[in-house]
Amino acid sequence: DKGIAAAENIIRNELNDENKKLVSEIISTDHEHLKGLQSLLRSENY
Length: 46
Description:
Blueprint: H1 2-14, H2 17-43
């Protein structure tokens, strides 16, 4: 999740609006994937 946070900082400061939108969509997907992985890990008792 630290990598996602770093990417979020970059988009706030360095990208134009079109690229911010694209990266925001990618980051949103990444967050969903992390939630899914966390759920799997909890269900497998790791």
